[in-house]
Inverse folding.
DNA sequence: ACCTGAACACCGTTCAAGT
DNA sequence: ACCTGAACACCGTTCAAGT
């Protein structure tokens, strides 16, 4: 689907400060930066061009359309996962360790790219069973390999994959949304500023507002992840 | 935030086939229908106008901008929850029953509006602690009231609210995405059709493709919901 | 080989003008 | 009171033309 993936073998060309695909990668990186600064809604071929010191039309030599530019931006961000030394493509200390590292790596990615993450979560995927946020064939293969090689049945591995992606998607999308990131398309100078809502008529909301506003996302992530792991133990061999 | 909510008291003016706010509501309903048919990306002031037999400029008498039109469309859809006879605003048979009914009602809503649901999931909310998919002050108030009136502490009620929304968001967003709905912005005639991906080099994906493509969303929803309920029992009084 | 100017068909939005 | 025509500043995208 992504025309940027000519060699789909499981061995990644690791993302990093090298510069292969010289121009395309520069454009995609500029796209990531632009979105992180101004939000996805602001990203325009013309504006990205001018951020690169070039006319919009030049981008079409490297990217067939704005849509595929966004796909490439998403891909660029998830490819960072390969650069995370804490995340293993091959399990080293069992499947629990593998899953915990992967979950934390994806959370770091989401928090590093709060404006891009909603795109990671919501762009159409390569195949219907590629479930965000783990949206790459390579990672899905890695995931399933880690589980089946630990003795999970095929069914159990797939069930684990689904439970894991649901959990991560819900948590991370809500966490970046709470970061003040506009989730999904983003406005710059917001026409309807998120002024603290009018709570007249909602006594409980008034009473619980402080509790509701507390940021417990890190703890909740850990607790829910632990709970998920407990649940998954039941599927383990 | 939504200019369509002049009386924010907890008593809803129930959604239904009546026609209060005559014109605005007609526009929003047309917007819902349009998105469900063509996807949110296709929704244009001009096109929606012509679907209503009117010029785009006329819409601005009822809706201040395209952004707020989208907000209104999302609101229209979640307001349908009030019309669901299986969902109670006030708990009648305890908090477990309340939560189960609410969860199933939201799932029905997502499946009824697979193209709108990604907007429900990703549009900026009225306040940072309003967490999709339960994106209305009225419902958050209802939720917290149901729990505290069942004896939950304030903290436990808030923790439950958070766990519940994460769970629903992850599950439902992935479920509508799998429905073939493009999640988030949508393309009509897709330039990169979701042709079945090239699985060369991914032996496990090939081997598990049938399992991966099986639709088990209903069962998984029930199982995960049950697990969540078990977890929440620990917070109950 | 790479970039651009001009052009096309479309946007959202404003506002004076029509009825 | 409600709708519209014309206009403005912007889009994505194509393509022949420049260097």
């Amino acid at each position: 689907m992504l025309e940027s993936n000519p060699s789909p073998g499981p061995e990644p060309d690791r993302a990093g400060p090298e510069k292969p695909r010289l121009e395309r990668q520069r454009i995609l990186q500029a796209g990531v930066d632009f979105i992180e600064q101004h939000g996805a809604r602001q990203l325009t071929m013309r504006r990205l061009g001018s951020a690169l010191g070039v006319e919009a039309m030049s981008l079409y030599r490297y990217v067939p359309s704005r849509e595929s530019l966004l796909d490439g931006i998403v891909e660029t961000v998830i490819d960072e996962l390969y650069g995370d030394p804490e995340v293993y493509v091959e399990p080293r200390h069992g499947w629990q360790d593998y899953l915990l590292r992967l979950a934390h790596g994806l959370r770091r990615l989401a928090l590093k790219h709060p404006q891009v993450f909603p795109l990671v979560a919501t762009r159409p995927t390569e195949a219907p069973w590629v479930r965000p946020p783990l949206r790459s064939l390579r990672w899905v293969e890695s995931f399933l390999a880690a589980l089946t090689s630990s003795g999970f049945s095929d069914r159990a591995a797939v069930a684990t994959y689904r439970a894991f992606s649901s959990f991560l998607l819900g948590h991370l999308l809500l966490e970046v949304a709470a970061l003040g990131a506009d989730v999904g398309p983003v406005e710059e100078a917001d026409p309807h500023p998120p002024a603290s809502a009018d709570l007249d008529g909602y006594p409980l909301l008034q009473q619980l507002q402080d509790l509701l506003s507390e940021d417990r996302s890190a703890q909740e992530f850990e607790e829910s992840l632990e709970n998920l792991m407990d649940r998954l133990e039941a599927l383990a061999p």
Observations:
- Residues 46 and 57 of chain A are 8 Å apart (CA to CA).
- The first helix of chain A runs from residue 22 to 38.
